[in-house]
Amino acid sequence: MTDTTTEKKKLILPMSERRPLKVDPEQWPVIASASDYDSQHEFQANRKWLIKVRQHADGRAAVYGMYTTQFQNERGLEGGFLLTSEEAQTLDLIRAIRRVAGIIERPELASECVNDLPAEDMDSDSEA
To answer: What is the pTM of this model?
Structure first.
């Protein structure tokens, strides 16, 4: 008998100050990211840095990042933060991105990730 159930692939997101999160990437799409590596081409890199922001339809956001290294005597770094829907609409989102950039020791990626966020529509709330 064949098993016809299909299990969706879940991602494990590293967190700081809490357990890792297991999420369905289809329900938590990436809304912003920034990355860097220490070579001309990513596939040749010995060190890689990455920050991602994923947001659920209910407004919650997960900001996480990691530093990976191929060097034997170096350790990778990772961390992240889960924000409520209210926090995700405020400067707390920007602060979380900057904190993650600090955790992975690549502060310059924070601005790149912030600039990759969806633009805020300043005309949508205008009064007629």
So the answer is: 0.87
